[in-house]
Design a protein that fits this description.
Layout: E1 10-16, E2 19-24, E3 27-32, E4 39-46, H1 54-65, H2 71-90, H3 106-119, H4 125-144, E5 157-165, E6 171-179, H5 202-215, H6 218-230, H7 234-238, H8 242-246, E7 249-250, E8 257-262, E9 278-283, H9 284-294, H10 297-305, H11 332-347, H12 360-380
Antiparallel strand pairs: 1-4, 2-3, 5-6, 7-8, 8-9
Helix pairs in contact: 1-2, 2-4, 3-4, 5-6, 6-9, 6-12
Keywords: DNA recombination
InterPro entries: DNA_brk_join_enz, Integrase-like_cat_sf, Integrase_catalytic
GO molecular function: DNA binding
Length: about 375
């Protein structure tokens, strides 16, 4: 099985064809149900040994097919559950075992690990809260489906009440249920930029790029360069097409800069957040460097393994797959590479990489552009 190449749990996005199951003469047969909607890109979790996490995958499938949640939402939930799966395997824990000693229970240990990661600055408070919430939602479904003993001590439910005034001034009370495992989203006090991230200095940017060029894959290095010098989101970079760069036009008002078209209305279409169509600046030298990469043996070998609709993507994994998730600004492959780059950077004394996240390349671009604009205004005035 090809999935055995992975050494950690992973999420695969599959083409799901609904089937009906029937039993006749003690034989189980499956028949294609053409009346049900085919799901393209259904997320499924696989353990490190290549076996599927059947319960989590069934949870995802049921929510999408029943219309309970959008595919994008389910993909986000499964990504959070993937983090839990990695934690379980790293501690040799089973997701369905709940010993009587509370401190030994997998959910309690996972909550502690999330809080520790949050306090150390490795994940944001919102991410810690979301990951724990995903786990609790999954276990509620498992218990409701009768897949776990209802007497197992998963957590203690707590009731909460929120008072508010409606549009005509009457006081109302909203009641709900939470658990003792929930992690409050305590946001940092003060002004923060998009995603709670801060830009890095121009010197740190250059140090990160120099280190990535020598120690990271060519794909990650070029993606970081695109983030720092174009401000594109990761989802847009992962969906960038060769034709997009080849059709770049010179900006007559800015020497050395080209304009590329992105969004659903561009030709070819390139993913953008909220489906916005527009043009993006890209330095001519960087555009040439990326196009040169697309002609390399490394890139062409990956293209040969790719499906037809993916062969025009600038960036492909070594298995010929897109780096990004479908219609998403997230990439598990880049997350893994960024984690490795941070570890190497810390070991090599690159302080700028200690807490660096890919999205900081985008806010760094915005900050440097604003500095340039302010400097230009001062000269004019």
């Amino acid at each position: 099985m090809f999935l055995q190449r992975f050494h950690l749990p992973t999420v695969e996005h599959i083409h799901f064809n609904p089937h009906d199951l029937s039993v006749k003469n003690r034989l189980i047969t499956y028949s294609l149900n053409s009346s049900r909607v085919v799901i393209e890109g259904l997320p499924q979790i696989f353990w490190a040994d290549g076996l599927p996490w059947r319960e989590a995958n069934l949870w995802a499938m049921e929510r999408v097919t029943n219309g309970e949640a959008l595919l994008k939402t389910v993909s986000s939930n499964l990504n959070g559950l993937l983090n839990y799966a990695k934690f379980l395997e790293s501690r040799s824990l089973q997701w369905f075992e709940f010993p009587s000693r509370k401190a030994d229970r997998c959910l309690v240990q996972y909550r502690g690990a999330l809080i520790k990661a949050r306090d150390a600055g490795h994940i944001s408070p919102a991410t810690a809260s979301e990951y724990m919430r995903n786990c609790i939602s999954f276990y509620r479904w498992v218990r409701r489906r009768g897949l776990l003993n209802p007497l197992l001590p998963l957590w203690k439910d707590k009731r909460y009440f929120i008072k508010f005034f409606d549009q005509v001034g009457f006081e109302r009370t909203l009641a709900g249920t939470t658990t003792d495992l929930g992690i409050p989203n305590r946001k940092r006090i003060g002004v923060t930029l998009e995603g709670g991230l801060l830009p890095v200095s121009a010197a740190d940017r250059d140090a990160i790029l120099d280190f990535a060029k020598q120690n990271a894959s060519p794909e990650l290095y070029l993606m970081l360069a695109l983030g720092f010098f174009t401000g594109m989101r990761l989802g847009t970079i992962c969906d960038l097409r060769i034709d997009t760069l080849e059709r770049a036009l010179h900006d007559p008002s800015a020497k050395g800069l080209l304009l590329i078209s992105v969004g659903p209305g561009a030709s070819p279409p390139v993913h953008t957040k909220f489906g916005v169509t527009g043009q993006i600046w890209i330095p001519e030298a960087l555009c040439s460097e990326v196009l040169e990469y697309t002609k390399s043996l490394r890139r062409l070998t990956r293209e040969a393994s790719a499906a037809g609709e993916h062969q025009d993507l600038v960036f492909l994994t070594r298995f010929g797959n897109p780096f990004g998730r479908r219609n998403s600004d997230q990439s598990s492959a880049i997350n893994v590479e960024m984690s490795s780059l941070r570890k190497l950077g810390i070991a090599s004394g690159i302080k700028a990489l200690r807490k660096f996240r890919f999205h900081q390349s985008r806010c760094t671009f915005g900050t440097e552009l604003a500095k340039l604009a302010l400097a230009t205004l001062k000269i004019i005035s």
